[in-house]
Amino acid sequence: MEIKVVKRVLDANDTMAEKNREGFKRAGVFVLNVMSSPGSGKTTLLQKTLSRVMPDIRCAVIVGDICTTHDADRLAESGAPVVQINTEQFGGDCHLAAHVVWKAAENFDLKDLDLLVVENVGNLVCPAEFDIGENARVVALSVTEGEDKPVKYPLMFRQCHAALLSKTDLLPHIEYDRAAAIGYIHQVHPGMPVFEVSARTGEGMDAWIAWLTERIQAARSA
Amino acid sequence: MHEMGIALQIIDIATSAIPAGAPAGCVRQVNIKVGKLSAVVPESLRFCFDIASRETALAGARLEIEEIPVTARCNGCGKHWSVTEPVFSCPACGCGDIRLLSGRELDVTSIEVTD
After folding, report:
1. B15 touches B111 (CB < 8 A)
2. Whole-angstrom Cα distance, residue A111 to residue A210?
3. For residue B2, which residues of chain A lie inside 8 Å, CB to CB?
4. A188 at interface of B, judged by CB pairs closer than 8 A
5. All domains of chain B, ordered by start, with CATH?
6. Which pLDDT tens digit goes with each residue over A168-193?
7. Do B70 and B35 contact (CB within 8 A), yes or no?
8. Burial grade of A178 (CB within 10 A; 0-12, 13-18, 19 or more)
């Protein structure tokens, strides 16, 4: 005998993500989910982003890693409150799930924040599948990775609202076809904004900061 | 990569669908749909399901996975096609404004129990 079920496996996460979204909206905080593979320069990019937007925009950060507090320590130097999630205690998870993000967010007074950055676990696969109730998702791709990563991990690049092509200061020293990389991003996600940035030199950061602040303001007045 | 977590969720959902009073070991099969764009590898999901279900009400049940192809429709010209390569623009008019119709599924559809 066949018994019909028809239930989304990630239903529990989706329901929690929807609750997060309502909670974040009530507090008036914009949530940015930052994803990438390990070593793409997410933390440095975020350090520079925070130093550019603070204190006008009141920020806090949630950092996900399987273990260590290295990234949290680096981000705390910005002066923004930081909470580290070590997924080790959740079975070494390869992504941040909605309930884990909410538990971490409870450490902040959300009403006093404009921007909550979630630095997800370095991984181009799983975080794409887990809604955390964010307002925007961005993916960082460094020029030391293969140009074709977007087509190898299409779900991640389709799910994001913008891509950051990072470490562009290295371009003169390596063989990298940036046009091909951007082409692959647009093959998977036509029209997605791509910001070519170097956190080290600051090149390209203006356009990225402008995009982000515009979104924060738009969400506030919505 | 998170197949074990997914397997545990499937076990939860399928277990709660078992009719009250049904005998132990009555679930023969759990049917699920997995979209080709979902971040799940069927073989490793089946492997995790077999291990994780061992000492549960689903012990011995088979996980039947139906893989769902990625299909899309162009919002510009209305063309409907099957996305077999990671190219997400309309093959007819080149428009990038498209809607995915299928391929993101990760659903438990039914369980099969012995009569």
Report:
1. no
2. 23
3. 93-95, 126, 129
4. yes
5. 3-14+26-113 (3.30.2320.80)
6. 999 999 999 999 999 999 999 999 99
7. yes
8. middle
Helix (H) or strand (E) holding B46: helix B42-52
Amino acid at site A11: D
Per-residue pLDDT at A90 = 63
- What pLDDT does A121 receive? 92
* pTM over the 0.90 mark: yes
Whether A217 has its CB under 8 Å from any CB of chain B: the answer is no
Q: How far is A138 from chain B (nearest CA, A)?
A: 18
Dist. CA A11–CA A42, nearest whole Å: 29
CA angle A100–A101–A102, rounded 5-degree value: 90
| Confidence band for A89, pLDDT divided at 50, 70 and 90 | low
Alpha helix positions (H), chain A: 11-27, 42-53, 70-76, 98-105, 149-152, 154-159, 178-188, 205-221
* Sequence-ordered strand ranges (E) for B1-115: 27-35, 62-68, 71-74, 80-82, 98-102, 106-113
pLDDT (tens digit per residue) in A131-140: 999 999 999 9
